[in-house]
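Before the break, one more example. Copy the sequence into your notebook; we will annotate it together after we see the structure.
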Amino acid sequence: MRKELLVLLGFVSLATATAFAAGPKEDPFKGKLFAPNVILEHRDELGLSKQQFTDIRMAVVDVQANVAEYEWDVAEAYQQLMAELDKSPIDEAAVIEHVNAALRAENEVKKLQVAMLVRLKNLLTEEQIAYLESVRDQ
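Here is what the structure looks like once it is written out:
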């Protein structure tokens, strides 16, 4: 079961990567947004205020909580997909619907992640953004 779930998640991730049309090292946002780990790695150099740090942490925690909900949706779609694939003959439309359910959940996760990245950038000052851009370009 766990192995099959990983296969489905891999499929969904592959589909998402294709949708973003980005290679493994290519940034789909061309460096215009900053991952929370990058911001936190440079928090001393950025001089993040206590409020900025708290707001960044809350944004990340909020996304993680919401992502967990969608992981359940993916798992449910996978279980239904596996049950459908055990049938003979296989109902192609039902299989596609279960795959679509997993992809919809993955799409919601991506939207949450992009919204978080935008929120994080909006928490930074122009100077902090310039610093992160300079570090990125090195």
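The chain has six helices and no strands. Helices lie at 2-20, 36-41, 43-46, 50-85, 92-123, 126-136. Try to locate both features in your own notes.
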